[in-house]
Amino acid sequence: MTYLICTTCGVQMDENVTRDDICPICTDERQYVNPNGQSWTTLPDLISSGMYQTTVTEEQPGLSSLVTTPKFGIGQTAYLVAGTKRILWDCITYLDQTVIEEVGQLDTMALSHPHYYATQVEWAETFEIPLYIHEADKEWVTRPSERIVFWSGDRLELADDVVLHRIGGHFDGATVLEWTAGDEGRGILLTGDIIRVVADRAWVSFMYSYPNLIPLPATTVAEMASVLEDVRFNQIYDAFHKIVVTDANAAVARSASRYIEALNGHVKERERR
Ligand SMILES: [Zn+2]
Ligand SMILES: [Zn+2]
């Protein structure tokens, strides 16, 4: 059975997709088809190329990042939260025996949105774990599996110290992960690219499409921020390894206000926080 992987987004398809097809994730206006044409690979081909390596790095006690070098696909960072359960947050395409041994054991995995589906079913099958995706994004699953659990509503307790919050925006089912025990109990929010940490690390942003620079409506950003108002977290780790190191909940609130003001035509000098 051949499961093709799109080289632009790194997402794996089911066995019915052929090399003549175009990636459904990349034809959506939030992504883009490679200007040189659609290209496909497979996990066995990536492994046998010997080009790639996925590195697991401890960021702080209980939190590790997973990054593939050289960059493959979108180049996102996945995270391993080792609290009351060992949870893989988001996914990356490159998985080989070395990574499997480094990661060790996993209890479950959860995804922020379709751009990071990567080889999620390979991971779920390898570690024999469930894979949590919000039901609002069901149509974007390119490789169905019995391992996938479609959850509904706006909140799911994945473990005693981990809660998924569906905040929408970038995708209907866009989800962030709250780890209450992270940052020595002050709380960490893992945001994928549902909330991105920007160049000024005291601020974040929210987009419908990052590669095509399409913003979100003001009402949507207000809703996203209001869901997080009552969630306690001091730090944010996003999908590109950017971190808000302190006071991250306030950073989300002030960044949402600034974004909404900008969309409404009020851009002014602000004090740097
Ligand atoms: Zn693609
Ligand atoms: Zn995305």
Query: N- to C-terminal separation?
Result: 54 Å
CATH superfamily: Ribonuclease Z/Hydroxyacylglutathione hydrolase-like
Number of helices: 6
Largest sheet report: 7 strands, mixed
The secondary-structure class comes to alpha+beta
Q: Please bin the fraction of helical residues.
A: 10-25%
Radius of gyration: 18 Å
In words, what does this structure look like?
The structure is a single chain. The protein is α+β, with helices and mostly antiparallel strands and 273 residues long. The chain has a single domain, classed as 4-Layer Sandwich (Metallo-beta-lactamase, Chain A). The chain has helices at 24-27, 43-49, 97-103, 120-127, 218-228, 248-263, and strands at residues 5-6, 40-41, 53-60, 63-69, 78-82, 86-89, 108-110, 131-134, 148-151, 155-159, 162-166, 175-179, 188-192, 196-197, 204-205, 207-209, 214-215, 235-238, 243-244. The strands form five sheets. A seven-stranded mixed β-sheet has the order 3-4-5-6-7-8-9, with helices on one face. The chain has a six-stranded mixed β-sheet with strand order 10-11-12-13-18-19, covered by helices on one side. A two-stranded antiparallel sheet has the order 1-2. A hairpin with a 2-residue loop joins strand 10 and strand 11 (162-166). Helix 5 (218-228) runs antiparallel to helix 6 (248-263). The chain is globular, with a radius of gyration of 18 Å. The structure holds zinc ion (2 copies). The site of one zinc ion (ZN) has 7 residues, from helix 1. One zinc ion binds at residues 6, 8-9, 11, 23, 25-26.
